[in-house]
From TrEMBL:
SUPFAM superfamilies: Thioesterase/thiol ester dehydrase-isomerase (SSF54637). It comes from the Eukaryota. Residues 53-125 form the Thioesterase domain. Gene3D superfamilies: Hotdog Thioesterase. GO terms for biological process: phylloquinone biosynthetic process. It comes from Apostasia shenzhenica. One of its GO terms (cellular component) is peroxisome. This is Thioesterase domain-containing protein. It is found in: Peroxisome. Pathway: Quinol/quinone metabolism; 1,4-dihydroxy-2-naphthoate biosynthesis; 1,4-dihydroxy-2-naphthoate from chorismate: step 7/7; Cofactor biosynthesis; phylloquinone biosynthesis. Homotetramers. The keyword Hydrolase applies. Keywords: Hydrolase, Peroxisome.
Length: 164
């Protein structure tokens, strides 16, 4: 997980760009996808900063909902999920150029409701060690909803990267 320059745009050829276009647009990449844990990373660039050159709170919320939803989708046997509640507490800021780790894990994996806890950590780019907790979020999702046939291609693509 090498740090990108603060101005470098995400690679359009990323193998996982099709998994979550809004997250990919701000430079996020998934590292681990499973029903028990979802992780990924983002380098804070100008594309995801507020004017004060720190990670935008709305991007933090989008990262949390994206990671929690992806985990819930996998945990519900690739059935559609829909967000019901998102609550985020911002603890510290991440500045331009810093590397951020996103970790999502389930608190409750019911058949119809799942709750995921998502933490964002500032990490040391040379060791990948967690340095400071940036935010915590709780994502509540309605699960096992019917999916359209068009989702089959997405499901098949996602399964290539999942740890099942």
């Amino acid at each position: 997980m090498a740090a990108k320059s603060s101005r470098e745009a995400p690679s359009p050829s990323s193998k996982m760009a099709s998994l979550d276009r809004p997250l990919h647009a701000v430079g996020f990449e998934y590292d681990l996808l499973s029903a028990e844990k979802v992780t990924g990373h983002i380098t804070v660039t100008e594309a995801c900063c507020q004017p004060f050159k720190v990670l935008h709170g709305g991007v933090t919320a989008m990262l949390a909902e994206g990671a929690g939803s992806m985990g819930a989708y996998i945990a519900s046997d690739f059935k559609r999920v829909a967000g019901l509640q998102l609550s985020t507490n911002h603890i510290r800021a991440a500045g331009l150029g810093e590397l951020v780790l996103v970790e999502a894990s389930p608190i409750q994996k019911g058949r119809t409701i799942q709750v995921w806890e998502v933490e964002l950590w500032k990490i040391n780019p040379s060791t990948s060690a967690k340095v400071q907790l940036l935010s915590t979020s709780r994502v509540t999702l309605l699960c096992s909803l019917p999916s359209s046939k068009e989702m089959k291609g997405f499901e098949d693509n996602l399964k290539k990267y999942c740890k099942l």
